[in-house]
Write a structure and sequence with these properties.
This protein has 226 residues and is mainly beta. It has two domains: 30-121, Sandwich (Immunoglobulin-like); 134-225, Immunoglobulin-like, CATH 2.60.40.10. It has one helix and 19 strands. Strands 2, 5, 6, 8, 9 and 10 form a six-stranded mixed β-sheet that branches. The longest helix has 15 residues, at 2-16. The protein is flat and about 50 Å long. It comes from Maribacter cobaltidurans.
Length: 226
């Protein structure tokens, strides 16, 4: 009888033991279309559209992926969910796009996004506008400390398929959208120090111009100084 009682107690202990929390999904690594490239592998659908294939590496602790593709000219977004590591979407020819993949795990609410890559879908274009500058730091809505000179460093990455960027314009102010042209920099510039005040919120954007007269805007980013 005593042995039976002990077995029941052990069974109860192990049955009531909490299961380990499931791990959140991990970030995927994008493969194709390549970053800052012209995608020439799309399959023609009609005179204006081609179907482009996207691929990425499998991520651990992930049940499904959400592919998200944005037309950078119109801000039109297309999404598709899949358990595979590839998918395809019809895209307008000669248009710039950005894309990312979100990882999902059915057992947790957390999701995580990949890097954001940009590309042009091949078309009849012979020249290309610059890709919108990629903002590096400060990140969106980040809280930062000013340095000993009461400055914060803004940094970005700019690229153009034609390699004909003429200059970089940085707009910076306490207003949204930022109206003050803080500086006009050379094509190779990737950072700028700006004077700031504590307990203040700032807005900034980067405009990239090329020799053909094309210009693209990074969009407005915001950060707060502690």
């Amino acid at each position: 009888m005593r042995k039976i009682f002990l077995l029941i107690c052990l069974f109860t202990v192990f049955s009531c033991k909490k299961k380990d929390n499931p791990n959140p999904p991990e970030q995927v690594r994008l493969l194709f279309p390549e970053k800052n490239s012209e995608c020439t592998t799309g399959v023609d659908q009609d005179a204006t559209t081609s179907r482009v294939s996207f691929s990425w590496q499998r991520a651990d602790n992930t049940d499904s992926y959400e592919l998200r593709v944005t037309n950078l000219n119109t801000n039109t977004v297309q999404t598709i969910s899949t358990s595979a590591t590839s998918s395809s979407l019809p895209l307008l020819k000669g248009q710039p796009y950005s894309w990312l993949v979100r990882s999902r795990n059915n057992q947790v609410n957390n999701t995580i996004s990949s890097e954001v890559w940009s590309f042009y879908n091949a078309g009849s274009r012979t020249t290309f506008a610059p890709f919108p500058a990629e903002i590096l730091t400060p990140d969106m809505s980040e809280k930062v400390f000013k340095d000993i000179n009461n400055e914060v460093t803004l940094s970005w990455s700019a690229s153009d398929l034609d390699n004909d960027i003429e200059n970089i314009e940085v707009y910076f102010s306490e207003q949204n959208p930022p109206q003050n042209l803080e500086a006009t920099l050379s094509a190779t510039a990737t950072s700028l120090k700006v004077s700031v005040l504590s307990s203040t919120t700032y807005y900034w954007s980067v405009v990239t111009r090329d020799l053909e007269g094309n210009a693209t805007n990074s969009g407005v980013y915001v950060f707060s100084v502690l």
